[in-house]
Amino acid sequence: MLRVHELTRRFGQLTALDRVSFEVAQGSLHGLIGPNGSGKTTFFNLVTGFLRPSSGRVIWQGQDISACKPHRISRLGMARTFQNTSNFASLSARDNLLIACRNQVRSSAVARLLHLASAVREEREQLILVGGLLERFGLAEVADVPACELPGGTQKVLGVALAMCTAPRLLLLDEPLAGLNPGEKAQLMLTLRSLRDDGFTLLLIEHDMKAIMQACDRITVLCYGHLLTEGDPAHVSQHPETIRAYLGEEAA
User: For residue 110, with 0-12 CB atoms within 10 Å meaning exposed, 13-18 middle and 19 or more buried, which class applies?
Assistant: First the structure.
């Protein structure tokens, strides 16, 4: 589904990513791990159009999207979250999700203004979609609470639900478990696995190794801009380069 080939990004004399190549298979839950500063978020920014590669290519379903803008990539079926929560603070959780659904609006502005049947039908579909996401992500009880009044962990979960409102085929999650308590982490990972089981594809940056190893089908390891190794969780957890990157030379 997603393939990067020799992907490289330089900032002056600093090489944040150096000729990284790997694939994300359709219908998989794929982990992207590595120590701080290894280039994970830079990778997300390149794939989603927030940065341009210095060299290399980003291939989405056979199409080179290396030069595409973020809004174009979103409409192609890719959505992402950010490390920091991003929402409309004064609006309720429900209204946040309804606004996110506007990315998929098909009816014209005139049809919506005149409340034509096509626009009314589309609004009804959006309400059903939002209601389902509120239930799926455990947000139904806080649906009418302003986002700014939600606990930090709940806001992170809301961010994932917001991304799902854009009807993505690939969901890129940047440290979604950060700031969540153990119960919230377990519940969110169950939800992500259920999305994978329903046919969605997910690419997950995360530092919680227990969650990554338990949930992911395949894992890619970056370190200082280089691809160290990739494979299933058993392979990655036992690989000397992975152990060295996280625990130091003596541990390896």
Answer: exposed
**How much is the pTM?**
0.85
* 54: its two tokens: 């210095």
Per DSSP, which regions of 37-165 are E strands?
Answer: 55-60, 63-64, 78-80
In tens, the pLDDT along 78-102 reads 999 988 777 888 899 999 998 888 7
Q: For the chain, give every domain's residue range.
A: 1-77+168-252, 90-164
Instruction: Identify the pLDDT of residue 31.
Output: 96
For residues 145-158, average pLDDT: 92
Task: Return the pLDDT at 108.
Answer: 54
CATH of 1-77+168-252, one of 3.90.226.10, 3.40.50.300, 3.40.250.10, 3.40.30.10: 3.40.50.300
Nearest to 188 by CA among 162, 158, 150, 218: 158
Backbone angles phi, psi at 78, to 5 degrees: -125, 135
Q: Are 221 and 229 in contact (CB under 8 A)?
A: yes
What string of DSSP letters covers 75-108?
HHTEEE--SS--S-TTSBHHHHHHHHGGGG--S-
Residues 180, 188 contacting (CB under 8 angstroms) = yes
Q: Which residues of 225-248 are buried (b: 16+ CB within 10 A; e: fewer)?
A: bbbbbbeebeebeebeebeebbee
